[in-house]
């Protein structure tokens, strides 16, 4: 499975946190912002993904991640989605306690 990461070309910003997580996990992904337009990347690809009228819930703004038919927006949501899948976070978390009180 290949993830597709979308963020503004030339402005890594929040997309960089996601890219670093994908790199740390050795995940198979396409950095759409860095792909040449001739290969389906760049700003045109970003705008086309956001203007997709066939999507039930198209992303409002980058960064967003596409995983086959799942689209996840916002850095925190994307990292929460990727963490357990890439082995970067526990699959289950303790519920109802703070990090200091879960010992």
Folded structure, characterized:
The protein is of the alpha+beta class. 31% of the residues lie in helices and 15% in strands. It has a four-stranded mixed beta sheet, with helices on one face. A hairpin with a 2-residue loop joins strand 3 and strand 4. Helix 1 (15-25) runs parallel beside helix 3 (75-86). The model has no long low-confidence stretch (mean pLDDT 85).
* Category by helix and strand content: alpha+beta
Strand segment tally: 4
CATH homologous superfamily title: Glutaredoxin
Corresponding CATH architecture: 3-Layer(aba) Sandwich
- For the largest sheet, list the strands in their spatial order: 2-1-3-4
Instruction: Please give the alpha-carbon distance between the first and last residues.
Output: 36 Å
| CATH topology term | Glutaredoxin
Structural domain count: 1
> How would you spell out the order of helices and strands?
EHEHEEH
């Amino acid at each position: 499975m290949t993830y597709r990461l979308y963020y503004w070309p030339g402005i890594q910003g929040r997309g960089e946190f996601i890219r670093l997580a994908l790199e740390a996990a050795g995940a198979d992904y396409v950095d759409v912002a860095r792909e040449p337009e001739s290969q389906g990347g760049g700003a045109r690809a970003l705008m086309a993904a956001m203007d997709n009228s066939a999507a039930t819930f198209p992303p409002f703004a980058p960064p967003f991640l596409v995983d086959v038919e799942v689209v996840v927006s916002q850095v925190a949501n994307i990292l929460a989605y990727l963490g357990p899948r890439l082995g970067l976070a526990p699959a289950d978390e303790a519920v109802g306690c703070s990090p200091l009180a879960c010992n």
